[in-house]
Amino acid sequence: MQTSNAYNAYKNNSVNFASKEQLLIMLLDGAVKFAKMGRQAIADKNVPKAHENIVKTQNIFYELMATLDVQKGGEWAKQLMGVYDFIVRRLTDANIKKDIDIMNEVIPLIEDIRDTWNEAYKISKGMR
After folding, report:
1. pLDDT the model gives residue 21
2. How far from 27 is each of 37, 62, 76, 100, 101, CA to CA, in Å?
3. Total-model pTM
4. Which CATH superfamily is domain 19-124 in?
């Protein structure tokens, strides 16, 4: 139990002291994790678990869409908003149909977005 408490304290502090960029990467890590859990739940025919994890993934993208400043970001931000919107719509389709093929289409996109933001963060911090 002591280890669990220490981990929870670390996890809470890592979120509390994370930069906006680090929080973005954490959100996208969560999106990848929940999408994969949703895909596995579809494979396992566990409808409630599939629904729950796909909705968690969608909620992350709704948050990303809500915080994306299209005015400041210009054309690049508009294109990114389109990608986020596409992912949310495909997740909706996958959830309604419980379609593993759609999840297999969307998960690499989510991973690419996460990897791109992670790479941008490293470059911005001179870590590359």
Report:
1. 87
2. 15, 11, 20, 22, 23
3. 0.84
4. Flagellar protein FliS (1.20.120.340)
